[in-house]
User: What shape does this take?
Amino acid sequence: MKKVVLTGIKPTGTLHIGNYFGAITQAIRLSQDYDARYFIADYHALNTVKDPRILAQDIRGVAAGWLAAGLDPERVIFYRQSAIPETFELTTMLMAFTAKGLMNRAHAYKAAVQENVEQNRDPDAGINMGLYTYPVLMAADILLFDADIVPVGRDQTQHIEMTQDIAHTVNTCYAEEILRIPQPFFREETAVIPGLDGRKMSKSYGNAIPLFASEQALKKLIMRIPTNSQTVEEPKDPATSSIYQLYRYFATAEEQQTLAARYRAGGMGWGHAKEELYAVVNRLLKPLRERYTDIIADTVRIDSILAEGAEKARPIAIATVRRLRKAAGID
Ligand code: TRP
Assistant: This one.
C-alpha cells in the first residue's frame, strides 16, 4: 500500500511563480510516489473572501493553474473541500476533542488579537469563528483522508502539530487508532523564491510575478525591477542582484555561468540583464500560460474534474467518519 500525501490549496488570489516552485512542482512530484489527495480549501478562503464572484473565480483559477502545471486528475484525487460534507461532520466531532486553550495559542488568531490590542480596539474586533476554529477545520481535512504526509510551508507547522494533537486525543480516548497521525513534509528551503524586490516572493508584499501573466505584463514587471545606479561599464555582483537570483530558477547551469560572467566583466547594463531574465522566464511560462488559457476557458470541464475527484474522495471520508461515529457511540 502506498502512503498518502495530502495538501490543501487556499483559493485566495492568483498563483505566482513562488507558488509554482514552492508548492506546486513539489506536490506534483510527490504524486508519483504517493496516493495523492489535493483539494481546494474553499471554506478556509470564505473566512476572508466575501465577494462571491471573486471566490468563485479563484476556486476555478487555482484549479486550472494546478492542472496547467501538470497535476494529473487520473493520478491525484483532486476535489473541492466544500464537496465533501464529511469534512464538516468530522470538524464538529473534532471540536469535542479540541481544547479551547489550544485554539487560543494559534499563531494567526493570536496575531489578530495582538494587532487589535495594539490599535486599542476590542481584542475580538473583526475576528470571526472561522479564523478561531481554522485549525480544527484543517485537522478534519487532513484526518479525514488518512494522510501520512502533508506538504506545507513552514508557516503551517503549528497547524500540523495541532492536527497531531487532536488526533492523539481522539485515539487515546477510544484506545484505538481511529485517526492516522500525519507528519508535516516541508518544502525545500531552496524553494523560497525571491520576489521583484529581493524579499521572499509573496502576495502580501506585492512583489510577486503572476504565473499566468501575459507576455506584455510579464515584460513590464521584469523591466520595473528596481536596480542600483551602477553604470553599464561597471562590473556587477550576481550574488546581490535580485535579477540574477531570480534568473537562477529558470536558467540552465550553463546559462547561469554565462550570465554571471557577463555581470562580473562589466559592460552589461541592468536593462540587458532584465532582457535575459525575461527570456528565460517566458520560456518556462509560455507553455504553462497556453495550457492555462485553454483550461480556464472551459469551466464546465474544470467543474467536472473536481466533481469526479469528490466522487473518488467521498468513500474515504465516509469510512473515517463512520469509524469515529461508531467509536463514539453515535452509530
Ligand atoms: N491552511 C493552508 C494554507 O493556508 C491551506 C489548507 C487548508 C491546508 N487545509 C489544509 C493545507 C490541509 C494542508 C492540509 O496554506
In short: The chain has 14 helices and five strands.
